[in-house]
User: Fold this.
Amino acid sequence: MLFAPSEEHEAVRRRIRELAEKEFRPRAAAYDESGEFPHENLKLLVEGGFIGMNLPEDYGGAGLDTLSHTICVEEIARCCAATAVAFEVHNTLHSETIAHFGTEEQKRIYLTALAAGERIGAFCLTEPGAGSDAGAVKTTAKLSPDGGTYVIEGQKCFITNGGVADLYLVFAMTDPSKGSKGLTCFIVEKGMPGLSFGKPENKMGIRASHTTDVFLDQVPVPAANRLGNEGDGFKIAMSALDAGRIGIAAQAIGIAQAAYEASVIYAKERVQFGKPIAELQAIQWMIADMATDIAAARLLLYRAAELYEQPGRHTAEIAMAKLKCAEVAMRHTVKAVQIHGGYGYMREYGVERLMRDAKITEIYEGTSEIMRVIIAASALR
Ligand code: CAA
Assistant:
């Protein structure tokens, strides 16, 4: 294995980079300021065939591999990290999960609409009392006596694409006595009675991606909308997160790359002590560390993307990629602000936005601490 993109992958990169540079980069600061959801960007990703690019061709997807998708998330995040997460959650956590676990009918009804970008998806696992401890979900799903409908009751929080999405994968307990083995996954449609949303959270970063509470007040969901069997929910969630975490690692690398590029340009332009600061060793060392760490983290990321398509589980290798990419993004966006000095602290220069955007990659889809738990469990098995 090479862990290196082929010419086809580079062609995908050129196409997404052109779109992201032309359309996403110029709008990123305004979206960050307003917190408005980037509908326009999503529309362009649909038109460009990027939404659904990772989904099977039989259901209208482009059937491209995980590395192609990873490159796209990276390039989108390099210009607008908020757009990258809305895209990534739709394509992986939501749609790919239906592709893997859905019945033929579920795929025909939902996957075709998701691949076409006619419907947007979200993933509802987290609750006020169930974050890192994903098995502690309190939301319940009770089957009606005739076996035709589940009634879902509970509250989800921090849901990416909340309110914006048309379809929600909701994890609920069908048998709370079994703990995480009593968890079941459902496809819940916006418009079902009793489903409502909180207002978008006022976040530190990725401000244009909408994050909301999702309230389920006795929501009747047809039994045909159950994804997998009763009790499969925890494994479905963990498997979905394997794909999702590759996406978040890619988002982190895109942010880090943007910080690195901005720092190189600024260091060559900014004159102090009679010469560009790029000639000062203090700055050179920061640039050298950025270049090295980003290259190393990207290798872990591409390795994870390639392994994901091989048989078996690769949760630990994916966790390594997410851990490293997120920490590299955080460390080097802070350095980018430092290289820019006082200007870096000002919104106008855009690097402080990268620093704010980077932080969430160490938290969502599994914190860096949970990534270490997964890696250690594998190492010490
Ligand atoms: N795929 C399939 N099955 C898996 C799996 C995977 N990746 N990982 C674990 N499993 C299975 C195990 O094989 C095991 O099955 P058996 O009981 O049959 O042996 C079962 O699941 C339990 O596994 P563990 O014992 O490893 O699970 P655990 O209870 O020790 O949990 C944990 C571990 C790693 C801490 C897990 O709870 C976890 O990942 N927590 C973090 C949750 C998280 O990432 N939340 C993010 C929410 S989504 C988000 O942020 C969304 C957004 O909108 C951006």
